[in-house]
């Protein structure tokens, strides 16, 4: 005699739930000290500022957390490190841009972003680069420039 028992896939009698990333909305400005922020916060900082971006997500089963910077997957190594809690540690900000936390399980995914801008950055077009004098460079405002024909340098 054989007995077949079927069990529904669940966790403690709870149905699977699509991940939801919790977001914040604060704005930080840093002169170089460690910034401990939450995804959804934005930062303007000087070059090499250390940053930790925390990312909290809920879902059943527990979502896998990954990070992208300007659309490129970030892993552990070099300037970036992720931990089991979903946080991204940046040893020292070198590039401005969008840092996106992605939470995913088999039910679906959710994401949220923080933006980091750098003080002391300036962008000039190729045609003006050779005409600029060093003393004039500091007059440019810090900004991200999506134009691929521009060169951005630290002031």
Protein architecture, described:
This protein has 155 residues and is mostly beta strands. The chain folds into two domains: 17-119, Immunoglobulin-like, CATH 2.60.40.10; 122-155, no CATH class. Helices cover 5% and strands 46% of the residues. Mean pLDDT is 77; it is low at 1-11 and 132-148.
Summarize the helix and strand pattern as letters. EEEEEEEEEEEEEHHE
CATH architecture of the largest domain: Sandwich
Give the number of DSSP strands.
14
Q: Name the structural class.
A: mainly beta
Descriptive labels:
single chain, 155 residues, mainly beta, Immunoglobulin-like, 2 domains, six-stranded mixed beta sheet, four-stranded mixed beta sheet, 5% helix, elongated, disordered N terminus
Helices and strands in order:
Blueprint: E1 17-22, E2 27-30, E3 35-38, E4 42-45, E5 51-54, E6 56-60, E7 64-69, E8 72-74, E9 80-82, E10 88-90, E11 97-105, E12 108-118, E13 121-125, H1 126-129, H2 134-137, E14 150-154
Parallel strand pairs: 2-4, 3-5, 4-12
Antiparallel strand pairs: 1-6, 5-10, 7-8, 7-11, 9-10, 11-12, 13-14
């Amino acid at each position: 005699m054989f007995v077949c028992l079927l069990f529904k896939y669940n966790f403690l009698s709870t149905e699977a739930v699509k991940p939801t990333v919790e977001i914040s909305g604060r704005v930080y400005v840093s002169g170089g000290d460690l910034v401990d922020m939450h995804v959804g916060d934005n930062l303007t900082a000087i070059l090499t500022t250390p940053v930790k971006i925390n990312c909290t997500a809920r879902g059943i089963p527990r979502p896998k957390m990954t990070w992208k910077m300007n659309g490129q997957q970030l892993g552990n190594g070099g300037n970036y490190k992720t931990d089991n809690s979903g946080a991204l540690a940046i040893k020292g900000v070198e590039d401005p841009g969008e840092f996106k936390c992605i939470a995913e399980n088999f039910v679906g995914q959710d994401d949220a972003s923080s933006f980091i801008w750098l003080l002391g950055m300036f962008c000039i077009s190729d045609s003006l680069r050779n005409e600029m004098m060093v003393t004039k460079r500091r007059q440019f405002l810090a900004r991200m420039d999506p134009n691929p024909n521009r060169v951005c340098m630290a002031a």
